[in-house]
Structure formats: C-alpha cells, structure tokens
Amino acid sequence: MARPDKAAAVAELADQFRSSNAAVLTEYRGLTVAQLKTLRRSLGEDAQYAVVKNTLTKIAANEAGISTLDDLFNGPTAVAFITGDPVTSAKGLRDFAKDNPNLVIKGGVLDGKALSADEIKKLADLESREVLLSKLAGAFKGKQSQAASLFQALPSKFVRTAEALRVKLAEQGGAE
C-alpha cells in the first residue's frame, strides 16, 4: 500500500476516535465472516465495528490524543467505535462474547478514560440511559409528592387542631 493511502487510513481512524464517545478493542481471531456480520448487527446503529491494522490504529489513536491503548494493539484487532449509548454497545459485545468465546474484549476508552476489559463488562451490566433517566424522573416525582404532602399536612393539621379547640370550648360552655 502506498504511503498516501496509509496516511489517509490513519486520518480516517483518528477522526473516528475523535468523533466517538467510546472505543472498544477486541480480538476476533477464529470468528467467521458470518459471525462478524452478526456482531456488527448486535452492536446497534450507533456503533461501527472495524477490523484494523495495529500499527496504523496505534498512530491514529495517538494523533487523537489517546495513548492509553498502546499496550492493547497486539494480535488481530478490531475496534468498535461507539457514537451513541456505550452501555448498549457494551452489552452487545458482552453477549456476543458469551456465545462466541473467540471474541476477546481487550479494553477500550470512554470519554478519554481508559477502560479495562472488566470495566467494559461492568459497563455492560448497567441499565440503558433511558431506564436510568426514567428512574431518576420517578425519584424526583416521588420527592415532589412527599414535599406536597408535607406542605398540605401543616394547614390541615392546624384546621383540625383549631376545630378540636372550638369543640372543647363549646363543651365547656365557653364562647366560640
């Protein structure tokens, strides 16, 4: 391959690293083309899975400001560039790796922070962004309901106390 082609490949990979929320490096040795196609589908629309050359990808990652992945570029490597929810793509990788032990998650990067393979598996155990946001909204709604009940309880308690005092005074023959 000519030098300009390599420079173009490095520039394209560096752009992908810059535009991605996360990138996960995997070893795909022993997977068939059909299995790789299934893996690409399982990652969702917000991820792109590419088989890459280690040297060019290492240079591209360094150009993008990511030097924490240098140790992971050995053996056959493929990168999942994730532009959407990293949890969904991590779940896709984890589930595919369970069914296909030839896929090995090496590590990755999330918003500039290096992740080990175990951390990526922990990320996959999280619930999706939508579920976490709905739980947060439910918690806020619950707190608002509690606050409304508290604010409503004070005036109603005052009215009950005042009524009890009025009844007591009426029983004693006092003025209302």
TrEMBL record:
UniProt keyword Transmembrane helix present: no
Pfam short name (any one): Ribosomal_L10
Keyword set, alphabetical order: Ribonucleoprotein, Ribosomal protein, RNA-binding, rRNA-binding
Database matches in InterPro entries: Ribosomal_uL10 (IPR001790), Ribosomal_uL10-like_sf (IPR043141), Ribosomal_uL10_bac (IPR022973), Ribosomal_uL10_bac_type (IPR047865), Ribosomal_uL10_CS_bac (IPR002363)
GO BP term, pick one: translation
A GO CC term assigned to this protein in UniProt: large ribosomal subunit
Source superkingdom: Bacteria
Gene Ontology molecular function: large ribosomal subunit rRNA binding; structural constituent of ribosome
Keyword Lipid biosynthesis attached: no
Function: Forms part of the ribosomal stalk, playing a central role in the interaction of the ribosome with GTP-bound translation factors.
Family: Belongs to the universal ribosomal protein uL10 family.
Matching NCBIfam families: PRK00099.1-1 (NF000955)
UniProt protein name: Large ribosomal subunit protein uL10
Organism of this sequence: Streptomyces sp. SID12501
